[in-house]
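Hi Y.,

Following your request, here is the sequence exactly as I used it, all 252 residues.
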Amino acid sequence: MLFFDWPFLWIVFIIIGYIVKTITTKNREKKRAPLNTLASQEIEAILTQLVLKQNDLPAWVQFPDTKRVLCLNKFIQQLWPYIGEYSKKFLIEVIEPQVRAQMPLPFKSFKFIKIDMGDLPFRVGELKVYTENVGKDKIIIDMDVSYAGNADFTVNTCGFIGGMNQITLTGKVRWIFQPLLPFAPIIGGVSVSFIELPTFDFNLTEMFEIVNLPQLNNAIRTIVNQQLRDMCVLPNKIFVPFVSDVDMTSSK
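Below is the corresponding structure, written out as tokens. Let me know if you'd prefer a different format.
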């Protein structure tokens, strides 16, 4: 019978353990090698496709700050009947008197007799939330808006009954939510403005189209542009407070 002292047995166990570990590691690496190669090839293929198709990708993929706002457009669709009612009031109380004031004497009787805002609302194209170089007490959002709906207006002036349709408007709107509050409703107010004068166009119909009144056409364009510029084109803005003690001049 052979007898081995303990130091010798420890050396044998260490050698056997090392051999087993080496064999196990090599087998594991052999199994992982094909997977690593496949993963590397897939990554390279994806990066290649992104580089080749970068120009074809939508803005919200190339620029993470720009988001699609399909949900927001659905929200606007639900609100549109109420926005339409407000628009009717605005046209009658604000636009109509301004048109009368700027029209020649024979056309001072300008009056809306039909206002139909249609069922196609304006749409938001792209939206960007600013996160850099912005104060901690505000949120700034820019969005592209466009309107090419089926609104239809009928007016009476100088004995003529005419209409206006095919109204289009495009521009970039800036929303500033400020100040942010540590209590409900969290946001103290919101200011809304166009970054620059939006593009506005329309088409005259019925008798207006037949007689082709340039004074009326030019007056409407001038008044709408002037109203937009004075009310909500930067640096002017519309401010809506959400709490009673918020200073309207604090939104900058």
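The mean pLDDT is 76.

Thanks again,
Q.
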